[in-house]
Design a protein that fits this description.
The structure is a single chain. The chain is an alpha/beta fold and 270 residues long. The protein is built from 12 helices and 10 strands. It starts with a helix and ends with a strand. 30% of the residues are buried.
């Protein structure tokens, strides 16, 4: 109900995009946005559960490694922040930042304490009512149970959708390649098994983009590609742009490049 009413209010911004106009046209009191946020976060919380041991998608693993150093480091940070809320209230979130192309862990003190511009993709309810009946005061055991039951395929789908939405304006074509420095950012395991690459490309590990981004000149256009032009190259392009690099991802990746009849070469030995 609230989602429908809010959508109608947002539609009114086409005539007047000011914040005053939005507040004036809200079909409910501004403080009721807390209820809407509570609803959306609880939906995300339940959608985050039910993994039943499903493994993490390789691109999701890569994303966590690129942003936190390792999956283990992300998990330690997320769990520690969540357990620190035991006996209190709030949310523990994993959110995607479209502007930075990065993932961050966020503690939210209440339903409206959201990261500006962030897109939550994983939510853990740390309000006491979420675990008291099953775990009593043992908030730590509740957090451990949640971590063992994350629906990683669903989290990955939300991450993929967020990256695609944020990166769409920065798609590059096969014709852009000749005017830019070209980087192959296929995952290390994928690159090692691939026999070919695009002429003139240099492979750089997408996990270490924060390191090699500093080596790129800000005044030179850059195109990055992965296999199909999905979230690996897209998120890498977003990270590079956040570092001041004029970067785009190759739409369709190397697969689309070959489908367009463009040449590939054997990878150099070693």
């Amino acid at each position: 109900m609230w989602s429908i009413l809010l959508a109608a209010s947002l539609a009114s911004l086409k005539e007047d995009p000011s914040m005053d106009a939005l507040i004036h046209n809200l079909p409910f009191e501004p403080n009721q946005l807390d209820g809407l946020s509570e609803k959306l976060l609880h939906e995300l919380y339940f959608a985050s559960l039910g993994g039943k041991g499903a493994s993490m998608e390789p691109p999701m693993k890569l994303a966590l490694e690129a942003n936190f150093g390792s999956v283990e480091r992300w998990r330690e940070e997320f769990v520690a922040c969540a357990k620190a809320q035991g006996g209190g209230s709030g949310w523990m979130l994993l959110a995607f930042q479209p502007r930075e192309g990065s993932l961050v862990n966020q503690w939210a003190a209440d339903h409206t304490h959201a990261l500006a511009g962030g897109v939550p993709i994983l939510a853990l309810d740390m309000y006491e009512h979420a675990y008291h009946l099953d775990f009593g005061a043992a908030a730590g055991a509740y957090v451990d149970a949640f971590m063992a039951n994350i629906d990683w395929p669903a989290v990955y789908q939300r991450y993929q959708a967020a990256v695609h939405a944020a990166s769409e304006p920065f798609a590059g074509t096969v014709d852009d390649v000749s005017k830019a420095a070209l980087f192959d950012v296929r995952r290390a395991g994928v690159f090692q098994q691939a026999p070919t690459m695009i002429p003139g490309a240099r492979w750089c590990d997408p996990v270490a983009v924060g390191d090699w981004a500093r080596e790129l000149p800000a005044d030179q256009p850059v195109v990055v590609y992965c296999v199909y032009g999905h979230e690996v190259s897209r998120s890498t392009a977003l990270r590079l742009r956040a570092a001041g690099v004029d970067a785009r991802y190759l739409s369709g990746g190397i697969d689309g490049w070959q489908a367009a009849g463009r040449p590939v070469i054997d990878k150099p030995a070693g």
